[in-house]
Amino acid sequence: MLQTEAKLLEGIMKNFNSLKIKPEILEAIKLYGFEDPTDIQREAIPFLLKDKKDFFGQAQTGTGKTAAFAIPLLNEIDEDHCIVQSIILAPTRELAIQVEGEIKRFSKFTRIQSFCVYGGVEYEPQLRGIKKVKPQIIVGTPGRVIDLIKKSIISLKDAKTFVLDEADEMLKMGFYEDVIDLLALFTEKPRMIMFSATMPNSINTLIQKIFSSPRIISIKEKTTSSELIDQSFYLVREKHLKEALARLIDFQDESYSIVFCRTKLETKVVSDDLKKRGHRVELLNGDMGQADRDLSMRNFKSKRSKILVCTDVAARGIDIDNITHVFNYGMPRDNESYIHRIGRTGRAGTSGNAMLLVPHSMLRKVVELEKYTGSRIIKKELPSIPNLIDKLVAREVENAKLIKQAITTKTESFNIDPSFKRLEKEFIDLSRDELMKLMFVWKFNKDIRHYNNLENIEKESLKKSKAPKNKKGQNVRNRKS
Predict the structure, then answer these.
(1) What strand order describes the sheet that includes 114-117?
(2) Is the pTM of the predicted complex or chain greater than 0.70?
(3) Of 245, 256, 306, 248, which Cα lies nearest the Cα of 279?
(4) 101-150 residue pLDDT tens
(5) CB within 8 A of 11, min separation 6: which ones?
(6) I want to staple 65 with a disulfide (CB 3.0 to 4.6 A). Which of 168, 195, 314, 458 is the partner?
(7) CA nearest 296: which of 322, 275, 324?
(8) R_g (Cα) of the chain, nearest Å
(9) CA-CA distance, 168 to 302, in Å (whole number)?
């Protein structure tokens, strides 16, 4: 998302001069290079620069909303006044850190200071940081911001602007009362700026309660998903979702994947299951402390682990390129979530894969997703047991060939430990055929038995029950790739 946030159309850049953008901010924007502006940037930036009214903007995640409010906000900051002038709230620590990173980039050539605060870590480093930096902009999560204000560490007596980013997620996480409480702490009613990917009833309620005659912009971004993303779905018995996910992951030759779950409990269950199967997995959810979250992200970004299991909320603010696969563990809670999820792959001209595990009762939802995205989601069958075993053996054979090459070429770095003699003595009487069978059973029998002992994990035949129907009463087609 950072690249999208920072790139604006050169034509709009020329117009910034007429909008009286500070030259220092203009210079920082130019440092990025330019592409077409997103619709929300085109609508929000000129309004926020010229008008002091409250503002609400709706646009999908990843469409450049941070730049849409950061540039006008920075333009209004008094650089000579080293006291908090603006508060920006984000629903998660990762997103708060990312937003503050963008603020720093756009203020690179100014004397404007910002600081990020969030829960899950000790107070003292943040207290020292605020006193040292003397920020004009505070970015943070609701609970920690309120705590620091009540402790008189952050003063709002000169704060004029209150920004809510990803407001829909904030309200879903139960921060409605926190937002109301924080607003009451301002000395004077601030200008309200709010951005959201969706507009549920809770957003409407919040607008009516705390906004004054706001300008409301709703951007209907194209929902057609990238043609470079291979979208597929698999009908699976709900009790076998973990097994189906493991089979899909096992079958990939090479992957750098995110597994999305609906709940924090699901992330823990799925993560533990994949670890038991021998995968290196990182977990990310709202119950984790900041140190654990940071460690998970470091391991995943460095590819020490190539699977990240997380919730939609925890994933907000994560910007990682080269994701090859997105696995949806069950149906997302809504169509927008699906778009946000699969948008993690197929970036920058690369291909990607989005796989959806669907309980039979949710089949109708796939049809709805197709209509919403404007693209086909192809029904596919899970890898068969013979194909999984063949893939397993082929992968290990390739590893063994490297060892064989090292042995036969007597590579200096490859030495046989003296304990090899014990193994040789035990099996020296075996024929070549017997030894090969021993190696195969020793290496693969456990995994093969695991696959073979499982019952059919996919759906029962649709012929055994009435085919699901769409809203028009038409049978949902049983599509195959």
Answers:
(1) 114-117, 137-140, 86-89, 161-164, 191-196, 55-58, 215-218
(2) no
(3) 306
(4) 999 999 999 999 999 999 988 999 999 999 999 999 999 999 999 999 99
(5) none
(6) 195
(7) 275
(8) 27
(9) 31
Beta bridge partners of 281: 307
Q: How far is CA 216 from the centre of its chain?
A: 27
The C-alpha atoms of residue 25 and residue 102 are separated, in whole angstroms, by 12
Q: Measure the CA–CA gap between 258 and 233, rounded to whole angstroms.
A: 16
**pLDDT tens per residue, range 156-176:** 999 999 999 999 889 888 899
User: Which positions ≥6 away from 261 have C-beta within 8 Å?
Assistant: 267, 270, 309, 310, 311, 329, 330
Tell the residue number behind the tokens 């090479």, with chain if given.
254
Paired tokens of 46? 């000129």
Residue 307, strand partner residues: 257, 281
Residue 345 CA to residue 349 CA, distance in Å, equals: 10
Query: Which amino acid would we find at residue 203?
Result: I
Sheet hosting strand 307-311, strand order edge to edge: 281-284, 307-311, 257-261, 325-329, 352-358, 229-235, 378-379
Q: Which domains does the chain have, with CATH numbers?
A: 2-218 (3.40.50.300), 229-381+458-464 (3.40.50.300), 385-452 (no CATH)
Q: Three-class SS string for 83-97?
A: CCCEEEECCCHHHHH
State the amino acid at position 474 in one-letter form: Q
250 is written with which tokens? 């096992």
Torsion of CA 79, 141, 271, 335, to 10 degrees: -90
